[in-house]
Predict the structure of Diaminopimelate decarboxylase.
Amino acid sequence: MERKRPFASRERLESIATRYPTPFYLYDEKGLRANLERILRAFSWNPGFRQFFAVKATPNPALIQIMREYGCGVDCSSLTELMLAEAMGISGEDIMFSSNDTPLDEFAHAHRLGAIVNLDDITHIDSFAEAIEGEALPDTMSLRFNPGGDFSFANGIFGRPEDAKFGLMEPQMLEAARRLASMGVRNVGIHALLASNTLTNEYYPALARRLFELAVRLRAEAGVRVPFVNLSGGVGIAYRPEEEPNDIEAIGAGVRRAFDEVLVPAGMGDVAIFTEMGRFVTGPYGALVTRVIHRKSTYHDYLGVDACAANLMRPMLYGAYHHITVMGKEDEPATHAYDVTGMLCENSDRLASDRALPEVEVGDLLFVHDAGAHGHSMGYNYNGRLRSAELLLQADGGVRCIRRAERPSDYFATLDVLPIAPKLGVKPAASSAARPKPARP
Ligand SMILES: *Cc1c(COP(=O)(O)O)cnc(C)c1O
């Protein structure tokens, strides 16, 4: 199996670091584009196929703009994600609004943009109707399905939907579809996300088969047209070098088999396949680049780096593995075991524990792989730590800053209501009511 290789050389990273101090996120435009092409090719058998990028994974307009060139839409789940889409000129059925526990003003905002609204519960039909204040429901809506039990396949259990807060049960799907139809909705799409970061080519095909069967039932028993089946996200990536990456071509072919066996015989060969992949689209094409600033030996050998969980939370939150390459030492044997830590006052703040690496010196650059999704976007400001810049390594080899690093004044910005604000480099608010919620439609 191939070892993980960084998508930039040490020399390139050092030259970038002279302009943009570490830590920073770096995204690989070339890799992202090639991946988008593979995804579209894998589903090209389905004329209506669309990928809606899960904005929460990497909410950067420069990256989303690249996906737009390939005809991708966006999957939003919050007001600010909708605002980002709107600012990019994205509207209508290019937006899937897959939210849960949805504030009513967010339903209203999504509706005003013409988004396809994916309801997470049967009671949300009334919530949505209330939110749009008596306006007619859209022609096309979507329902999120939760089959309960375990979602398993021949070679193992993928997840336990029964314990997930998301979605409607099967009888509720039927009842909701009938209700929507009675309220003038002609097209009811279906959606489900039953497992996260799956590393098998069987997840999407098994999910698709289940949803296709439900689609046939919805049409027969609720009398609605099912325009699309949305397989959502959950397609994983190989975080560990010994893992076998998913093969999107095999995944597309597996979905096609289920489509041909279930939908086509039912006369539903016109159903479009939708996806909302986040991790699989950008994950491998983003890295966190950080520098070793301390070496400490006590009961363990520690590398102190200039990034922390505020920059990449996944290891702290889920014990997630992110492969680390010591730049310039790619081919040296891993003779040492280090805990790679950040500077938060939390012992769990580490990018890796007991990680086998070559001997590392202060000043070495570390390339933290597969941080391109649910990486920067999960960042937070504990301990007053600031989120890093995001840089794009362009296909032409140049580097473009696509989000600057946070500054102390960003951190202090919400104290603008206090007299101390100017001393913190923050412009005071005109009045304490000066920060209204974004305008309601
Ligand atoms: C998080 C999420 C996704 C994306 O999941 P990935 O695992 O990143 O592909 C898609 N749809 C919904 C509704 C989500 O919540």
